[in-house]
Design goal:
The complex is a heterodimer. Chain A is α/β, with parallel strands linked by helices. Chain A is 40% helix and 10% strand. Chain A contains 12 helices and 5 strands. Chain B has 3 domains: 87 residues, no CATH class; 87 residues, Elongation Factor Tu (Ef-tu), domain 3 (Beta Barrel), CATH 2.40.30.10; 129 residues, 3-Layer(aba) Sandwich (Rossmann fold). By secondary structure, chain B is of the alpha/beta class. The chains are: A alpha/beta, B alpha/beta.
Chain lengths: 267, 383
């Protein structure tokens, strides 16, 4: 799909819904590779970076953010029509993000607690990931996404191969780095065993438990891990909070949260 | 990846954007990784148990074919560093036939083992099970009791009353349950206590149900009357580990519907898919819709290969003898039947001699015995 007057560079758009823009900044943060990226991709739509706008169709659309307001629903459907490859980037687009915490709460009460004039705010009762509305071709996890994974995905799309993005637990990254397991050694909580890798075990490297921002890993047994955390003497509220973070609305974290919510309500 | 002999890696091709050059990187990997056996068309080991099997049989079996030695150096790292406390020794015991089947010795050191010493516990709540049988839930117990195993018992005492042996019917996270039939002075005094009362405990004592020997087999629990009490903790443990067993069944015989213990738990077990529960009573009024007859009449429900059954039997001795006979005639191997014996006990640690059956101390060598270990003591009157 060539652009007039240039070599066949894929036309790229970057769009956002409800999000903090941190994932888009990860693109801009690839400073050493930016020149190579723009020489190989024609970035025609990227409101975070330029006020120049271009309509579709696009070869690749990167979508940040969750579907959180009524107008988002039509907008994402239109983007899907314009996109050959649609890539959801970040915890909001892939899991609903931190704003999906309202999905378990009273939407109006949340809105009234946050905004002076809740009547000015039009939002949906639930914040949902992009894949609940349209077909997503590829996704990058994390809050924010990892620059290396982004580069690998762009490279793979150019070359025409599958991105080499691993489907493993964060534990594997700790083991490779030689980071001592804090769960076993100190009894602290860590979401690493049920969270997908990609961050190079960032938090455990700095002696902090993983909080699951890359979301549930394939085949991870979140239910069993929540039971283990409870068995170690943690109150259900604390375990609930561990799962109800940036990716809490993604299954199977969602079921664990709902289950623990019931347990809380019982006591 | 905690294992010092793990050598598997993934080969990563880091290509540049024009796809003309790439750098090959070898990255340490694990066969536990979900994508480890994936190909474009699918995944050869899609289920966690497939990946676990691969790891286990490689280390302990096929490593010999490849390298002429074991893939396990015995360092224990995989046990130490498992965040969910998987113990490879238990896993191996589950798939390998036991080399020398023995009832294992006491798992935890008992507290206040010597007669005359007691560890104090508090009565948290009381629940009437039947007209004469009561469950006491004890809390503030020494951690040793929480580390006890199903089948073990405690010596429980009140000031001025002789201690009595009572099976632990249930292990809770913060205490234990004792289910007591009021038949003597101490047991009557115990069931008349009020919450908050303090009691003296010694234990946990005795042998326990060798649950691991039933791994991969049909676990059959046969209970008669209050015999369900020492089996309650076993059933809990079987259900909690139900994946390890071919099937789990409970056959429970009671004199009357009113004398059934743990009726809430029986209902919950009946409703769960992990265990099949069958109950029969010796006699009942018209309101009883279940089976009537002795517990062995339930055995006609056994449809599986009885050579693969491990049975746990507790009840009055006549009932145990009939049950054992019934199981053996069905084809259950005698060395796969465990029973729990009841005898007069005073010291609980094999000193006082009250509980002896021929050469065995029921308190120390039992109360859980493999039928074979009891030999002809089991079916003899007056032993």
């Amino acid at each position: 799909m060539a652009t007039a007057g240039r070599t066949a560079r894929p036309r790229v758009a970057v769009a956002k819904f409800a999000s903090c823009d941190g994932c888009q900044l990860t693109i801009l943060d690839l400073e050493d590779q930016l020149l190579e990226i723009v020489s190989r991709f024609d970035i025609v739509e990227f409101p975070e970076a330029t006020s120049r706008r271009s309509p579709g169709p696009y070869d690749i659309v990167f979508v940040e953010g969750s579907i959180s307001a009524p107008e988002h629903i039509d907008a994402i459907k239109e983007l899907r029509k314009q996109a050959r490859i649609l890539v959801a980037i970040g915890a909001c687009a892939t899991a609903g993000g931190i704003q999906a915490m309202r999905n378990w709460a009273d939407h109006d009460a949340y809105r009234a607690a946050v905004y002076d004039h809740p009547e000015w705010v039009e939002s949906l009762a639930k914040a949902t990931p992009v894949a609940e509305h349209v077909k997503v071709d590829l996704e990058l996890r994390g809050c924010p996404i990892d620059g290396g994974q982004l580069l690998e995905l762009m490279t793979a799309v150019l070359v025409g191969r599958r991105p080499q993005i691993r489907e493993e637990a964060v534990c594997h990254e700790c083991k490779r780095k030689g980071t001592v397991c804090m769960v076993v050694a100190t009894g602290r909580a860590c979401m690493g065993p049920v969270t997908t890798s990609g961050c190079n075990a960032l938090c455990p490297t700095y002696d902090r438990g993983c909080y699951g921002c890359f979301g549930p890993r394939t085949n991870g047994n979140a239910k069993s891990w929540s039971k283990g955390l409870l068995r170690s003497g943690r109150p259900p509220e604390e375990v609930w909070r561990l799962f109800a973070g940036f990716t809490g609305y993604a299954e199977p974290f969602r079921s664990v949260i709902t289950e623990l919510g019931k347990a809380k309500a019982k006591t | 990846m905690s294992c010092p002999t793990c050598f598997c890696t993934s080969v990563i091709e880091e290509s540049d954007m024009d796809g003309k050059s790439s750098r090959t990187e070898r990255q340490w990997d694990s066969c536990f990784d979900v994508a480890f056996a994936k190909v474009a068309g699918g995944d050869f080991r899609a289920r966690p148990r497939d990946r676990y099997r691969q790891w286990l049989t490689h280390k302990f079996s096929t490593w010999f074919d490849q390298f002429g030695s074991s893939g396990c150096v015995g360092c224990g790292r995989c046990i130490t560093w498992c965040p969910v406390r998987i113990d490879v020794r238990e896993e191996l015991a589950a798939i390998a036939p036991p080399i020398a089947p023995v009832v294992q010795p006491v798992a935890v050191e008992p507290v206040a083992a010597s007669p005359g010493t007691f560890s104090i516990a508090r009565l948290a709540s009381i629940k009437a099970e039947t007209e004469d049988t009561t469950t006491l839930s004890l809390t503030d117990v020494d951690p040793a009791f929480l580390g006890g195993r199903p089948g073990q018992f405690v010596m429980i005492a009140l000031p001025a009353f002789p201690a009595v042996p009572i099976s632990i019917s249930r292990f809770r996270s913060n205490g234990i349950d004792l289910t007591i039939r009021a038949v003597g002075a101490t047991s009557t005094a115990l069931v008349n206590l009020h919450p908050g009362a303090r009691v003296g405990l010694r234990g946990p004592l005795g042998t326990f149900w060798p649950i691991q020997e039933a791994y991969g087999r049909h676990a059959v629990v046969v209970a008669g009357g209050v015999g369900l009490s020492p089996l309650h903790g076993l059933v809990d443990a079987l259900v909690a580990n139900h994946d390890r067993f071919e099937s789990i069944s409970l056959f429970y015989g009671s004199r009357t519907p009113e004398e059934r213990l743990f009726r809430d738990d029986l209902a919950a077990w009946s409703a769960s898919k992990e265990i099949d529960v069958a109950v029969t009573v010796d006699r009942a009024g018209p309101e009883w819709k279940g089976r009537v007859g002795v517990v062995t009449t339930l055995f006609d429900m056994i449809s599986w290969d009885c050579t693969k059954v491990t049975a746990f039997v507790v009840g009055p001795e006549r009932m145990m003898q009939a049950s054992v006979q019934g199981l053996i005639s069905k084809g259950v191997p005698a060395d796969r039947i465990c029973v729990s014996m009841e005898r007069h006990m005073e010291c609980g640690i094999g000193l006082c001699g009250h509980c002896q059956m021929a050469g065995r101390f029921v308190c120390k060598d039992g109360p859980v015995f493999r039928l074979n270990d009891l030999g002809d003591m089991f079916n003899r009157e007056g032993i």
